[in-house]
Amino acid sequence: MTTATAQVDLFTPVQVGRYTLPNRLVMAPLTRNRAINNVPQSVHQIYYSQRASAGLIISEATQVSPYGVGYPDTPGIYSAEQTAVWQKVTEAVHGNGGRIFLQLWHVGRISHPLLQPNGELPVAPSAIKPAGEASTYEGMKPFVTPRALETEEIPEIVEQYRQGAKNALAAGFDGVEIHSANGYLLDQFLRDGANQRSDRYGGSIENRARLLLEVTAAVVDVWGSDRVGIRFSPSGSFNDMSDSNPEALYRYLAEQLNGFNLAYLHIIDPRPGEDKFEIGTRFFRSIYNGTLIAADGYDKASGNEILAEGNADLVAYGRLFIANPDLPKRFKLDAPLNQYDRSTFYGGDEHGYIDYPFLEESLEESIKPSLA
Ligand SMILES: Cc1cc2nc3c(=O)[nH]c(=O)nc-3n(C[C@H](O)[C@H](O)[C@H](O)COP(=O)(O)O)c2cc1C
């Protein structure tokens, strides 16, 4: 006799680390460049609390150090002032019944002297200039050749993550996500296109993974493993990233991280036809024992599909959450979605940030013309 098991979908509650989440929709981390001079504003409270019906919110990437800044008006978590405003954000999200993790960030070479304290060179694993341009307060500028970190400086980087994790705890977040994706500092150490060091942080896969594993241990020390996640983009070449053997690299990472009992790993999946490597959530599922969040390009149908296959436990939505503060409700009701406006993604005022309508309002809007 076979017993029918209810199929898991986006609305099946799920345990993530120490939290039971009411649904499996995660708000993906989204940089919005509205934290004036790296300090979040009161408008952040509105923006995040509007989206509190997500099973889990992951904050926009947030610098652990002034040296980790790579764009105008992205928030930090290294000063008392920043921490105090983040506390108001977490209170607002909790007030609306949500949960929010902070994404811990250091951009490494994806910066520019114009964004660095005292106009210094950005730091990186190796002095390799990425192709492309940095976004500064004075407009786009070609990337510079970064300064390779000395071996003796690496413990300071680990300490910056530890302090950022402590500040996030003080600010009332529910957990933290270590940003090890998209070509920023930790990703630069992982992949040999950016890391050509000859010390214990470069060369072999074990050595390239060392900084991430040290940072993970430091952050887990602060938070406990069940409130810490890590984000990877194994297939992404964004920010001029490449690796000679990504399959071996991410296999090693998944195996090592099995020992940490983390809240989750968050995987940016390859874009068919766009990304060079085909390593995503399904690859991790075959090696990694814990909870997996899948991201990139999902809609309701494809989100439900990867959950039903058993290849992911949650699905992150980025652009759809920008435009739909009540995305879970809209998915649940199969209601129409607001369209996102790319021109207001990065920077600007409240428009395109906190004024996307909730379902009731947009239905009212669509009814109004017929009443006129
Ligand atoms: C405006 C914008 C800002 C983003 N900022 C971040 C970020 O701060 N940290 C991060 O890990 N990914 C960031 N991403 C990537 C998203 O988290 C997500 O992976 C991507 O949007 C693909 O998911 P989607 O198709 O659901 O939008 C950003 C994407 C967009 C569009």
Automatic annotation (TrEMBL):
Highest taxon in the source lineage: Bacteria
Q: Which residues form the NADH:flavin oxidoreductase/NADH oxidase N-terminal domain?
A: 9-336
Which InterPro entries does the annotation name? Aldolase_TIM (IPR013785), OxRdtase_FMN_N (IPR001155), Oye-like (IPR045247)
Q: What is this protein called?
A: Alkene reductase
